Amino acid sequence: MSPHGALVSFFAFIQRWGGRGRMCRPAAYWENIWMKRSTTTLLAVILALSGVVYVAPRAEAGVDLDLLQLGNPPATLEHGDYGVWVEILNRRLAEAGYHPNAGSGFGDLTRHAIYAFQKVHGLETDGVFTPEMWELIDAEPELQWRSEADRVEVDLGKQVLYLVEDHRVRYIIPISSGSGGTFVNASGRVVAARTPEGKFSFDRHIDGMRISYLGALYNPFYFRGGYAIHGSPSVPNYPASHGCVRVTNWDMDLLKQHFEIGETVYVYGFRTPEPPGEGVRVLAPEAI
């Protein structure tokens, strides 16, 4: 029997045995084991004890071997869940350019990664992952080709930020931008809480926390006057800022490693459409 055949037979055995109440729905003990070991690693150990050398098969295009091995996915994956399906979800999200938790836990990072995923695809933004979403994870983002190989694009309509490097989408991050309401600025004037749109570039950065009259800005990168992309403890799934582009603090820690002074920033999607490109779509994210 081939190694791949042994793998399929092994999981068929598990499902049959599990049907009698042991591993079909793993209890906490088995969930803990599966959290710490990938299924292929577990199988490799079992086969090694049997004197069989196992080499993991390579996935064909569009086929996730983990999904084939495990059968039907859970009806939902949501905050607080853990286990092998969450581990697969986190890996697939990371490969697609999102910023989830590492490992087998569905924490705040994965929830916000799901928010970004749902925003990109026009789905209800509830942070819950359902089976029909698996086939959407690898869908290419609809970005235009531009002359700047490295840049930032902020889509106010979708409420997401795209970090593009070498003409490829590296990260897709959820944001919260200007609410559209009004507030009193530092000069005492009532102004609209709108995020400026157009083509800009980063012109200054403040490392760490900056306290302004409007609140705290974590690692802000300014792209027009006092408007910045910055970390915040409050990033709801709708426009809520005074005009800046908010991201979570953990996403800002990630973006800070990639942002550069002088880097081009495109902001669009609320009052203005996406600027036209050169007619070639940006390539899909690669596994990192």
Count of the domains: 3
**Helical content, roughly?**
25-40%
The structure class reads: alpha+beta
Total of DSSP H or I helical runs spanning 4+ residues? 7
Global Rg:
22 Å
- What is the string of helix and strand elements? HHHHHHEEEEEEEEEEEHE
CATH T-level topology of the largest domain: L,D-transpeptidase catalytic domain-like
Distance between the termini: 34 Å
The major beta sheet can be summarized as: 5 strands, mixed
CATH architecture of the largest domain: Beta Barrel
Give the neighbour order of strands across the main sheet. 3-2-1-12-6
Strand content: 15-25%
Shape: globular
Quick tags:
288 residues; alpha+beta; Muramoyl-pentapeptide Carboxypeptidase, domain 1; L,D-transpeptidase catalytic domain-like; 3 domains; 5-stranded mixed sheet; 12 strands; globular; disordered N terminus
Short summary:
By secondary structure, this protein is an alpha+beta fold. Strand 8 and strand 9 form a beta hairpin.
Draw up the topology in text.
Blueprint: H1 3-18, H2 28-36, H3 39-49, H4 65-70, H5 84-95, H6 108-120, E1 151-155, E2 160-165, E3 168-174, E4 182-184, E5 190-192, E6 198-201, E7 204-205, E8 209-212, E9 215-224, E10 227-232, E11 245-248, H7 249-256, E12 264-268
Parallel strand pairs: 1-12, 10-11
Antiparallel strand pairs: 1-2, 2-3, 4-5, 6-12, 7-9, 8-9, 9-10
